[in-house]
């Protein structure tokens, strides 16, 4: 039975909106957050060393399957996947994939202080991050952590997420991770609101949603887990009249004011969109029914065109990614040493949304994209997403809109930053995140798997599981109104 | 790109509502539909003979896996599944499962005639049905059928579903089939509206939605595929004032008027519910994160506690179901002969919703139910669903609300009928479908995986994939307002 947690929905959404429009923070200015992260980064000593697989502690290759596994059978493993699909130009292949079947917890605690909602964020070290320390959710926990099966150290603040009687749930969604790397991996993205006073441990601080979104404008400050959690926030669904009122009073004189007010309108307005929500659902159903995706787990040693040496598992042409073993040593208040596999991308990727004003509302050009580890065949993805492919050498016209994005005029770029993928699994992986405003020459004709969707509609899809992929969510988290 | 199909949403929903409130049909009265089905049933000669597996034409056991497969590799196969889960009392088992990875088409053509929406239904023979001929959607097609990969005979009316320029899409959803029997099987449920005149072939007729729902009150007249398609219909989301107006003018003097008007209110009202939609989403997310489901395809011959003889694959205690081979001979206008496997249930099952008026709105007592073939761990299911278990011998209190349903006073039963499962896969499987109104002594305390949900909320979940299971959808299709 659902515990008593029905709350005033509108109030909740207005709280989010107010916080997103607020950068002033009496506890910690945005500059101070940056200085604090820099200090934490300098203070900590991190040594990541690529080692031979045979030198890894507690990790090894299973004799029967060749899978790379932890001795305990826990955490995650690197397995093989055999794929057959009618999507794209390659109809069959096999590849290594990260298998981590448990649903993890990505949780943020919020609290209303003087009418503004603050988010309790953590300065967290992750071995794969280029800069180690980034701003993370209050709680990142695996299922073993949070169910306390193994009686380990209880994660900080876990008890607030378990106490559903006293704390309001503001957001609670299952969302996917990279479908080209993980086999159906999902996390529970959750935001709760506490009423009581709460201890702010070292490494934690309160920031507004507006501050978080400002920080996402910068390279590698806000980690992937934070970005996915806040991407799902709904600010409400309003009639055009109410939207016009909100837009008129919000953020006067900010940089790029016209664009930011346009995004605010696109996220709040429930009335104006090129297609109805039912039309979009029908389009997605059609796309899912049209494409086949058959995936089968296979032993890692049966994966074709991938090889293994002492240090890495790699694709024979050097494409996509490789799996490496690292030794991690972090010296902070205490010294932690462990080894683990990480996935190293072959190169930097690009994730770009093209947006366009249609009937006075910004629409995002969204594609249905099939990836082998997807939970449900395909998910909505940015206009261009070539995370792992060799996009600089893609033949002209090979990937829709890639040329457009690569040759765009600087004044069309509304947002650009390098963002890290999850530093607990990926080795120094960062991707260009870009939002571009289409010019008047943008082609009207779209490929069948592309469509124009408003932010309000994208946020509606986000309420349900596995509709938007992590790359689309990362870009949506960067949408700021101030 | 989405073809031009934006339509007036409200108009579409009012069309559905008007049709659901209409039983008068100048083309074919409800009695005539029944007489026609009876005639079609008498006219056709069906001979279903249980045969040895070795006598099956084009079907056989794969030497390596023991899977029961068609020579062509197409259609479906009977494979093994290994399950580990934290749900329920049995944490590990293996079982046979039907694997049919393609997404099939269940499509109904509708047409507005004199202001009323009519549904083009088919009298269709299926070998497993107890009575062979039932009322089916306009189109039931496998992907091989509708993509015409194999150049077979094109299914009747397929072209209307492919012509998205001229025909409006009124509903388009991917929905699951029995999660205990099928491995992640789904069909595309689609309703389109044509403007033009359309040929009505033999075996087809136009009926109103009201007629369909009246026919679902009877045993085994409307097949499972029709029931799932119409279950997803939304009649719109209205404020209480509008709902009160609609309710006051709808269906005066019908049998059980108070209850039927109550259901109409529950399906139209978007404002009054015990829990908000976001609260329900959070509850489902929590349930999905709480329970583990790990399924692996295994060779059929490795399934434990199941045995095979010449005629059947069966569980060693005679529980659940068995897989049999049949020879089918249907003599109609032409003679068709083929053999195929069918799944035969160990006994009749029961699917029951308990409903209760809360704050003036009927709420349905819905459970999160995990089944091994589910696409996403668990789906919303009726209050009681024991399709295949031995419910008459379940220990007291073993299954929540089963005792309540079995011992209910006759005057609490608002709907009861025997309904067939899919006759193309199941051998004479029929289940009791029941809707019961809770009395004043109904316990207030619910198990954690149960919740009260309005019809309007259930219909909202139905828009998205894999939220309601086939048993819940079958019961929702039986909801009638006249």
List keywords for this structure.
7-stranded mixed β-sheet, 482 residues, Nucleoside Triphosphate Pyrophosphohydrolase, alpha+beta, 3 domains
Any overview of this molecule?
2 copies of one chain form a homodimer. The first copy, chain A, is α+β, with helices and mostly antiparallel strands and 482 residues long. Chain A folds into 3 domains: 2-45 and 102-240, Alpha-Beta Complex (Nucleoside Triphosphate Pyrophosphohydrolase); 47-101 and 297-345, no CATH class; 272-292 and 346-477, Nucleoside Triphosphate Pyrophosphohydrolase. Helix content of chain A is 23%, strand content 34%. Chain A has 12 helices and 24 strands. Chain A has helices at 9-20, 30-43, 143-147, 158-162, 209-216, 224-231, 240-249, 257-268, 277-290, 402-406, 455-462, 470-477, and strands spanning 45-51, 59-61, 68-70, 77-85, 92-99, 104-113, 116-125, 133-136, 139-141, 168-176, 186-194, 204-208, 293-298, 306-308, 312-315, 321-331, 335-345, 349-358, 361-370, 378-381, 384-386, 413-420, 430-437, 450-454. In chain A, strands 6, 7, 8, 9, 10, 11 and 12 form a 7-stranded mixed sheet that branches. In chain A, strands 18, 19, 20, 21, 22, 23 and 24 form a 7-stranded mixed sheet that branches. In chain A, a hairpin with a 6-residue loop joins strand 2 (59-61) and strand 3. In chain A, helix 6 packs across helix 12 (470-477), helix 7 packs antiparallel against helix 8 and helix 8 (257-268) crosses helix 11. The two termini of chain A are 40 Å apart.
């Amino acid at each position: 039975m659902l515990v008593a947690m029905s709350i005033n929905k509108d109030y909740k959404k207005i709280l989010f909106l107010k916080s997103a429009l607020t950068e002033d923070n009496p506890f910690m200015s945005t500059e101070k957050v940056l200085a604090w992260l820099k200090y934490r980064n300098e203070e900590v000593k991190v040594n990541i060393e690529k080692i031979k697989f045979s030198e890894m502690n507690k990790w090894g290759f299973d004799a029967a399957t060749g899978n790379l596994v932890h001795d305990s059978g826990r955490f995650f493993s690197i397995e093989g996947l055999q794929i057959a699909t009618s999507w794209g130009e390659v109809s069959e292949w096999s590849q290594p994939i990260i298998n981590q079947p448990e649903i993890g917890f990505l949780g943020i605690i919020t609290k209303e202080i003087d009418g503004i909602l603050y988010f309790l964020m953590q300065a967290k070290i992750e071995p794969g991050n280029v800069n180690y320390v980034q701003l993370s959710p209050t709680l990142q926990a695996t299922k073993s952590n949070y169910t306390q099966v193994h009686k380990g150290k209880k994660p900080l603040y876990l008890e607030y997420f378990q106490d559903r009687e006293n704390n309001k749930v503001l957001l609670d969604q299952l969302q996917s991770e990279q479908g080209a790397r993980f086999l159906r991996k999902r996390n529970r993205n959750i935001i709760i609101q506490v009423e009581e006073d709460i201890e702010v441990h070292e490494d934690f601080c309160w920031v507004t949603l507006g501050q978080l979104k400002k920080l996402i404008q910068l390279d590698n400050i806000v980690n992937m887990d934070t970005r996915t959690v806040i991407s799902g926030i709904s600010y409400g669904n309003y009639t055009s009249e109410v939207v016009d009122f909100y837009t008129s009073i919000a953020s006067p004189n900010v940089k790029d004011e016209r664009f930011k007010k346009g995004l605010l309108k696109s996220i709040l307005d429930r009335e104006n969109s090129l297609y109805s929500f039912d039309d979009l659902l029908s389009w997605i159903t059609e796309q899912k029914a049209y494409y086949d995706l058959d995936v089968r787990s296979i032993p890692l040693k049966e994966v074709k065109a991938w090889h293994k040496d002492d240090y890495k598992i790699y694709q024979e042409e050097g494409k996509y990614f490789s799996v490496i073993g690292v030794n991690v040593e972090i010296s902070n208040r205490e010294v932690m040493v462990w080894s683990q596999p990480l996935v190293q991308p072959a190169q930097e990727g690009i994730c770009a949304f093209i947006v366009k004003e249609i009937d006075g509302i910004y629409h995002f050009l969204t594609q249905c994209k099939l990836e082998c580890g997807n939970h449900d065949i395909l998910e909505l993805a940015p206009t261009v997403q070539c995370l792992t492919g060799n996009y600089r050498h893609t033949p002209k016209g090979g990937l829709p809109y890639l040329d457009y994005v690569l040759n765009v005029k600087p004044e069309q770029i509304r947002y650009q930053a390098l963002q890290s993928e999850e530093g607990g699994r990926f080795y120094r992986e960062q991707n260009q995140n870009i939002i571009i405003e289409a010019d008047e020459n943008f082609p009207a004709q779209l490929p069948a798997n592309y469509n124009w969707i408003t932010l309000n509609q994208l946020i509606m899809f986000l309420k349900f599981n596995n509709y938007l992929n992590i790359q689309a969510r990362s870009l949506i988290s960067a949408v700021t109104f101030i």
